[in-house]
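Render this sequence as a predicted structure.
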Amino acid sequence: MSEAQIVLSYSRESGIVAIASGEQYPWAHTALADGVWHLPAGGTRITVVDLVACAKRHRASVHTSSRRFIGDAARDLARLLPGQWHASVEVYTHPAWQEDLVPWIWDSGELGRAVQSERIPYAAVLTDAVQGTTLLFIERPGRQLDYLVGAFSPEGLEGGYGDPHAPRSIVLSPFPGRAAQALTDRYLPAYEQAVHARQTAAIAAVLGDVRFEHDTWQAVNASGRYSDATPLSAAALGAATELFLDHAWRRFLTVVDHAPTLLDRCRPADSPWPDDAAALSRLADAVIDAEALLDEIVHGGAVPDHERRARAWPAIETWLTDGEAFLRQARLSAPHRRPALPVTAPARPLAAARSAYRSH
């Protein structure tokens, strides 16, 4: 591939679209003035010839794409998908910019491999803000017609390529109707099941970690000694207790984020464990209490640390006690088809504040 390259494709709305890319992309940028250039559909062939000549003077090669402009393809697809989808185009002019995608692509298939090993100078992002779903839509490398689509990591859940819970990207036809049907019938249901499994696994990991630390704290508290048998002073024990409670609270915010959606799906009466209904009710109440506390911390001014610890622990303890009932119900209630209601909790006012709070 040339160190500086200009790719031309046709858009029914913008005419000819030229996009600059390559490690020496400034050469191509100079030829295009700003990196992306449009020739209206009524423009003359002479203008394209002039562009080619100008590109050569600036040591940039010009290539004509066999596909229509990816923005048109993405918008046509978005219009046919159920829900409220928005399509936007991203340009990864320098190869290093493409590398920024790698940690965020949540895929176990061809798309994840392509992002890591193939040059992708541009792509489209499909977003359904209501359901909280963001997809990456690219031209399939090495093919003349097909596209690839896969997902970005859901909000609040880390995990890129290779995550065992990640869905597998699929190949899409260049025909919008067929592509929309494949995405709706095959990919989105698989994505929703993967999100459900990933959320359940995240909560299970939190409960396991907090339970282990709680058991360790209880053992130290009962013995009055450190693990090396050194006596533990009252002040040191108090500090250890505060540290445990602080860490447990921060970990528990993952439960607060993801449990409401999963709890709503649970149907204990239809499961082998109908008596879990009482435990699920206690767990839901505990999440409500924790959300109220977090709301006060974020929006109501400072909550003293000792008060926050005293109020948070009952909710955490409830989940440590009844968490297994939740996990077996959640694993049984994974979605099997795309429901009418959102599969991930809609963005709530606390979402951004939670992220900022965790970072401190």
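Summary. Strands lie at 5-11, 15-21, 36-39, 61-68, 85-91, 105-106, 122-128, 133-139, 147-152, 170-172. The two ends are 44 Å apart (CA to CA).
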